[in-house]
Amino acid sequence: MTGLIITGGSIDCAFAGAFLKDKTFDMVIAVDGGLAAVKQLDIRPDAIVGDFDTVKGELLEEYRAIEGITFEQHQPEKDETDTELALRTAMEAGVSDMVLLGAAGGRLDHSIGNIHLLYACLQKGVKASIVDEKNRLYILDQGKTYRSGEVWGKYISFLPLTEEVHGITLKGFKYPLTNRDIRIGTSLCISNELEAETGTITFWDGVLICVESHD
Predict the structure, then answer these.
(1) CA 165 – CA 6 distance, rounded (Å)
(2) The pTM is what?
(3) Known Gene3D superfamilies for this protein (predicted)?
(4) Which of 10, 103, 185, 186 is least surrounded by Cβ atoms within 10 Å, i.e. has the fewest?
């Protein structure tokens, strides 16, 4: 199953509308304040999740009147963020491939936390990515092949999520590497570019944050 989660961070609705055009998802979840973007994008959510502290009451009541939408309301005093709860709801429903909109660009603590939530998805065998008008971000624990017509933008950056990542080899990139180890605290693998039609990254231990981006 595929899933779309729209959270309460920064969303460029013009971009989101173009990105979602002709795409379908098996499950759509609005997260608290993200319901405003759902309304603007004219998307019908399957579920609305959160403590509802950042969504207008009249908007919430409008969606409560629509049959077939599941409401999952939580107390503001809780251990998890609303986005984590939405991811849990999606995974419990069987979603194994999901896109998050509005998961970056707002509060920095939530943005960083959402990146860590992608790692939690990876650990459960769920593919997940954060997308906005300039970036596509996801987590890698194994190698990947990149094709020039499929990447999000000009730049491809790799940052260690674990303390160390061992044996990075980059082929087909402007700045190749061979069996290189990197640690948290380095910017060595930021702003690389494909030099060939395809490029590959391989490594034998560790976890990387990958960001495909453009200016």
Answers:
(1) 31
(2) 0.93
(3) Thiamin pyrophosphokinase, catalytic domain
(4) 185
